[in-house]
Write a structure and sequence with these properties.
Shape: globular
Order of helices and strands: HHHHEHEHEEHEHEHHHE
Strand content: 15-25%
Helix content: 25-40%
Structural class: alpha/beta
């Protein structure tokens, strides 16, 4: 696996960690995979603060997907850059067709732990060339999530992906987290992904940067809702609220929703 693919182990560890502690997520699959893989993380990658952040981020994405599925009962769900994430289990397909998409090496690894069904399929491919979309036969409405992915793509690559999705589907709702340009600059030296060999990432300061003629920015979401901070207690809550939430956090990391009608 290349260095970008190896970054999947950082959120996997985080979700396994918080699940074991009974915080934010119930993710037995993450616990199972982490215990079986025994991948070696070091430094900031194994920080409990980062684990809390990864757990909350995934819970926020999960909630959004559930709402979108309720509002669009005939939509397909596409999880781009799925890694080893078990969102399809945590959320459930609820009779929606669900596609998890990632690089060939990642999907091969993923197939050791996940089985396809009539509603759930895995697609191997480079999300930047968009050839993987030929495996998606549905073309009406799509709910698309990109969690922890945009920072590895240039703005042009993100816009090309958006164009390809808009060409394929009549209607799209997309949720994507993004680094700011300041966070991308700082990530060359002070990011947990450095621990698995990644040094080149990208950020945006204006959500309109990912817009295209067909895909429009709708709104910004709160990455760290207060209700999840409140699951922490005492000193941990105090530190986490100041390091990973509020105005300081927004200088580094943001969450945007886009839509094609």
């Amino acid at each position: 696996m290349n260095s970008v693919n190896k970054t999947l182990y950082i959120p996997l560890y985080g979700k396994s960690y918080v699940s074991k502690k009974g915080l934010f997520l119930d993710d037995k699959k993450a616990e199972e995979i982490w215990e079986a893989e025994e991948f070696s993380l070091k430094g900031k990658s194994k920080s409990k603060w980062l684990a809390y952040y990864m757990g909350i981020r995934s819970a926020v994405f999960d909630e959004w997907v559930k709402r979108q599925m309720t509002d669009a009962p005939n939509a397909v769900v596409i999880h781009i850059g799925c890694g080893m994430d078990s969102r399809v289990i945590r959320v459930g397909t609820d009779n929606h067709k669900w596609y998890d998409v990632d690089f060939y090496e990642v999907i091969e690894e993923r197939k050791r732990y996940y089985a396809e069904t009539d509603d759930y399929k895995m697609i191997a491919g480079d999300i930047r060339d968009c050839k993987w979309l030929t495996n998606v036969k549905e073309n009406k409405t799509a709910i698309v999530v990109m969690e922890g992915v945009s920072m590895y793509l240039t703005i042009d690559e993100m816009r090309n992906l958006a164009d390809s999705l808009c060409t394929h589907f009549e209607s799209i709702t997309l949720l994507v987290d993004a680094y700011t340009s300041f966070a991308a600059k700082m990530s060359k030296r002070r990011n947990p992904i450095n621990d698995v060999g990644v040094t080149e990432v990208y950020g945006i300061d204006n959500p309109q940067a990912y817009q295209t003629e067909k895909l429009a920015f709708i709104k910004e979401h709160t990455m760290i809702p207060e209700k999840y901070i409140d699951e922490l207690k005492g000193f941990e809550r105090f530190v986490f609220a100041r390091l990973y939430a509020g105005s300081f956090s927004k200088k580094l990391y943001r969450l945007f929703e886009y839509k094609k009608n």
